[in-house]
Amino acid sequence: MKKLTLLLLCVFFSATGFAQIQFDATIQPAFGAETVLMPPSPLKSQVIFIGGYDMVEATATYGQPAQTVVSKDWNDFIGFTPDASGQHLGWISINHEKVVSNDNLGDGGGMTTFLIDRDSLTDSIIVVNQTLLDGRSGKFFNVDFVNHTGETGMNCGGITSTVDGRIWTAEEWFRGDNTDIADRDTSLFTIGTGTANGQAAPAGFPGWNGQTIQKYQNYNYMTEIDPRQAVAIRKQYNWGRQAFEGGVVMPDNRTVYLTVDDTPAFFTKFVADNAGDFTVGKTYVYKQDATGSKWIEIDNTDPNKMLNFKNEAVAVGATMFNRLEWIAKDPNSNKVYLTETGRDNPASRWADESAAGATHATHTLNRAAFVQGTHPDSSDYWDYYGRVLQFDPATDAMTSFLEGGPHYANSPDSTHYPYNHLSNPDGLNFINVNGQSYMMICEDLNGTSHGRVPAGLSDRTCELYLFDMSDNTPTVSDLTRISVAAKGAEITGAIASPDGKTIFVNSQHPSSSNPFPYNHSLTYAITGWDQSITTIKNIQQEQADYDFYPNPVSRTVYFKEVGDFAIYDLHGRRLEVYRNVNQIDVAHLAAGTYFIQNKAGITKKLIVQ
Question: pLDDT tens digits, residue range 28-60?
C-alpha cells in the first residue's frame, strides 16, 4: 500500500511541474553570514566594484594633481544610464555615504561612475576602459563635485530618470551649522562659482547665481551629475534644502516626486514648466487632509523658504511621515511606491511639529488608534518595522501597500524565527521581465529587537526581496528572498538593467571582521532574471502549498512549523527521523527523489539535487 501511495505521489508531483525547477530560486535565512549570499546557478553573481579598495581616477583637487587613488566607501544608491548609441550597455553611478576629508576626492561624501558592457557569450558584466573629456583614463572615475558645485555630503539615495537616464544624488546628511561639516574651508559659499574645467558652464542655478549662503547650507540637495564625464552639474536649490533620500521622474519628464529620510518627513513634488528643464517650475508639499488639491505650493523663488523648507512645510500643515526613503514607479501602472522605513518610537521627533500644525498621515493615525490604542504623539506609539506605501497620482491617495513584520514583543530564537519577515524597507525599485513587473525591496534594519533578527543576535542581517506586482493582496508571506547582505551590512541600491537580465545591488558598511572582500562595501550583479523569473513564481506557489520548502533543494529544508519529520527513499525505507525541528540539512543525501512524512502521516515528495 505504501508503494502504491508513493507511486501516485510521483505521478502527481510530476504533473504539477514542480519537478521542472532546477535550482533553489530563493535564498534561505542565514543570520550572521560573513559573506554576501546570492542565488545559485543558473543565476550568475559577480562582484563588480569594491568601495574603499578599487582605484578611481580623480581630477586635480585642493592643489593635488589628477591621479589614481583609492575610491571612497559605503556604497549606497546605484544609478543606471543606458548608452543611447547602443555601443555599450550603460553607465553605473555609485553613491558613497561615508563622510571623510580627502585631498584628492573632495571632502564629505562622493560618487563613482563607470561604463559597463555585457559579455555576449556569458552575459557577465564587463567594466569598460574610458577616456573622459577632462583627460582622465581608466575604468572607475571619481565624480568631481568640488570644482563644480562645492562639496557633497553623505550621498545616500538618488534618482535615475527612466525617461533619459539622468542621475541625481541625494545629500541626506542634514547639517545645522559649519561645525557639523567635514570641509576644510567653511567660508561663505557663492552659488554659481564652481570651476568649469573647460567642460561646461559654471554650475550655478537660474535666479540663484550670486546668492551667498553659509557653507553648511550648500548641503542637502538633490544634485544632478553627468555619469558619462564623472562631474557634478548642479544642485537643485529650487527643490528645497532637505535630508533627501529618493525621487522619481515621471513619464511626462516634468513631474518629480521626492522623499526625505527624516522624522517627520514630508512628501514633496516639483513640476517643471517645460519637459526636461528642472531649473524652472513649481515646488509643492503634500497635505493629505487638504480640501481640494492635496499639494500646497512653497515659493521656490524665495531662497529663504527653500533653505528652510521643513519650517515652511510645518507652517502649511503638511503631512508627516516616519522616514520616507526610496520611491519608484511601477512600469506597468501609473502608481508610485515609497518605503516608509519606520523608527521605533517617533513621538519625540515629531511631537513639536505636530503641535505647530503639521498633520499625521491617515495610515499612521489608524495604526495608532486601532492597532495600538494610542496616538502617534504618544511615547507608547511604535513603528519598528516600517512599510511600503502606495501613492496614486491620479487621485493623490496615499495608502499602506505592504506592512512590515510580523510583530513580536520579544524576538523569538532562530529555531522559531519565521521564514517570511520584513523589517525597515529602504531601497525600492522594479525589474520588468517579459512584461511583468516585480518590486525589489531592500532592508536596512534600524534595530535588532522585536523580531528584526532572532533573539541573541547583535549583528543585523539585511535581505533583498522580490514581490510579484500581479498579486493584488500583498503580505509579507508573498515575498521571495533573493539575496542577503554580509553580516552587519545594509543591503541597498537595487536596480535592474533595462533588458531585465541583471539586478545590481550593494552590500553597504558590513562588519570589518568579515573576510575580504565582504569587509568592504560591495556592488555586485545577479544576472539571469530573464530566464529565472518563472521559477521564482513556482517557488512562491510552492511555499504557499507545501509544509516545507524549497523543493528541489540542495542544502536545507525549512518547515513552516516546528514538528517531527521522517525521510523515506523511493522504496519506502525510512532513512532518518527528526524531532521538534523546523529545518533539516539534506546536503549529505545523494541526489534523487525522497519523501518527507510528518507526525500526522502526510507524505510529500522531496527532490534533492
Answer: 667 878 899 877 666 889 999 999 999 999 999
Of 255, 218, 604, 232, nearest to 396 by C-alpha is 255
Query: What was the pLDDT predicted at 194?
Result: 60
How far apart CA 268 and CA 528 sit, in angstroms, is 36
CATH number of residue 367's parent domain: 2.120.10.30
User: Is residue 145 in some structural domain?
Assistant: yes
Number of domains observed in the structure of the chain: 1
Show the domain range for 239. Answer: 9-549
For CA atoms 174, 180, 184, 185, the dihedral sign is positive
Q: What is the pLDDT of residue 27?
A: 65
Q: What is the pTM of this model?
A: 0.85
Q: What pLDDT, in 10s, does the model give residues 364-379?
A: 999 999 999 999 999 9
Residue 510 and residue 446 in contact, taking contact as beta carbons nearer than 8 Å:
no
468, burial (CB in 10 Å: exposed 0-12, middle 13-18, buried 19+) = middle
For the cut 60, the answer to whether the pLDDT of residue 358 exceeds it is: yes
Could you identify the residue written with the cell 523608527? 343
In a domain, 587, yes or no: no
131 burial via Cβ count (<10 Å: 0-12, 13-18, 19+):
exposed
What's the Cα-to-Cα distance from 297 to each of 4, 74, 316, 403, 485, rounded to whole Å? 73, 35, 9, 30, 41
DSSP secondary structure letter of residue 411: P
Query: Residue written as cell 561615508?
Result: 98
- Interatomic CA distance for residues 360 and 377, integer angstroms: 9
- Class of residue 124 by CB neighbours under 10 A (exposed 0-12, middle 13-18, buried 19+): middle
The string of DSSP letters for 321-375 reads BS-EEEEEE-TTSS-EEEEE---S-THHHHHHHHHTT-EE-HHHHHIIIIISSS-
pLDDT in tens, 243-283: 999 999 999 999 999 999 999 999 999 999 999 999 999 99
**The three three-digit cell numbers of residue 338, written as one number:** 515609497
From the list 576, 541, 546, 575, the residue with the least C-alpha distance to 561 is 546
